[in-house]
Amino acid sequence: MSEAVRVALVGYGLAGRVFHAPLIEATPGLALRTIVSSDAGKVHADLPEVRVVASPQAAFEDPSIDLVVIASPNATHAPLAMAALAAGKHVVVDKPFAIDLTEAQTVAAAARDSGRMLAVFQNRRWDADFLALRALVDAGVLGEIAELHSHFDRFRPVVPDRWRERAGPGAGLWLDLGPHLVDQALQLFGPPEAVQADIAIQRSGAEIDDWFHVVLRYPRLRVVLHAGALVPGAGLRFAVHGTCGSWFKHGLDPQEAALRAGTAPGGEGWGVDPAPGRLLRVDADGTLADAASPTPAGDYRAFYLGVRDAIARDAAPPVSLTEALDVMRVLQAGIDSAVNGHVVTL
Questions:
Q1: pLDDT attached to residue 164
Q2: Are residues 39 and 184 in the same domain?
């Protein structure tokens, strides 16, 4: 395929407007042709040249479309992905790509049978802080890792009126932020042996979980995934401890804030973290001393570059079906552990 990959985007809410549309537009070799939305005026205020249709099926039936990106509410991800695959389209699905493991396995089987690419949007593999952590782990700088604490805390005491906060399939914080934290952990250490989870509702008026504390158990390593909505002093992102040192990171990767502010991806300073992590190494005499921490720039466009190459050049997709299903297994194990109050062995 020598010409650009032609893209239809399903959904123009937060995910579609803030993340997918700008990243697709900024990726060479991709052409955003169609957006599925009930509000054509909102779309055309940002993207006047893009065709707007009200029905996903209208995009799926368009023979000029190569790739469908699904950025609709979570409960619709699997049925829309199945319909797009059945129409012969390649598919990107925002996370989580299904509401439970059984549904995810059904979608994965359909993707394999169709011969089309399906990739889950795990953009936070390209966070600046995660890239720094991955470099440290891969190089063995911290020695054997004993603990990883991965936080994504917020202070949102008032429950907003949006589908993510309403009781129903696919809603809640564990299925919102959990896929990011789980995927990052699995990228570093692979699937755990067992999962122990505490998932709760803390805010007054909340209908669905807004707090979780999940431990991924490995033979020696423990990975703690944590998020809450009542953390006024939110700041810790990572704390990692190994036999040769520790690494601490506060503050979030800047790309989401930049996208929300309307900054086009890829400009000068894009993805550069203003608060890089702190690395402490164990010296030969056993004392701790500061050392230089890696400071790579993050870039979510890497995901869509991988999607383009998977379609146009038959490269491996940026997120494989195996990786996507491994994340869903941990998410499902977390739900089962929290409901039943026991450790779930994988």
A1: 86
A2: no
Tokens of 267: 């400009």
Is 239 in the same domain as 307? no
| CA-based torsion, 317, 326, 9, 18: positive or negative | negative
pLDDT in tens, 110-146: 999 999 999 999 999 999 999 999 999 999 999 999 9
Q: Is the pLDDT of residue 42 over 80?
A: yes
Are 111 and 260 in the same domain? no
The predicted pLDDT at position 3 comes to: 87
Residue 115 shares a structural domain with residue 131: no
- Rg, the chain, Cα only: 20
Assess whether 63 and 119 both reside in one domain.
Answer: yes
The answer as to whether 194 is a domain residue is: yes
Number of neighbouring beta carbons within 10 Å of residue 257: 10
Q: What are the tokens at 125?
A: 């593999």
Question: Per residue in 303-318, pLDDT tens?
Answer: 999 999 999 999 999 9
**Using 50, 70 and 90 to split pLDDT, how confident is the model at 2?**
low
- Written as six digits, the tokens of 315 are 């490269």
* Residue 323 within a domain: no
Assess whether 26 and 96 both reside in one domain: yes
Asked if 230 and 260 sit in the same domain, the reply is: yes
Strands 194-200 and 245-250: unpaired
The answer as to whether 325 is a domain residue is no
Count of domains for the chain? 2
Give the burial class of 328: count Cβ atoms within 10 A of its Cβ; 0-12 exposed, 13-18 middle, 19 or more buried.
buried
Range of the domain at 244: 124-299+330-345
Backbone angles phi, psi at 256, to 5 degrees: -60, -45
State the Cα–Cα distance between residues 67 and 91, nearest whole angstrom: 6
Residue 275 lies in a domain: yes
Label residue 149 by pLDDT band (50, 70, 90): very high
CA distances from 321 to 56, 107, 131, 214, 241 (A): 23, 10, 22, 23, 31
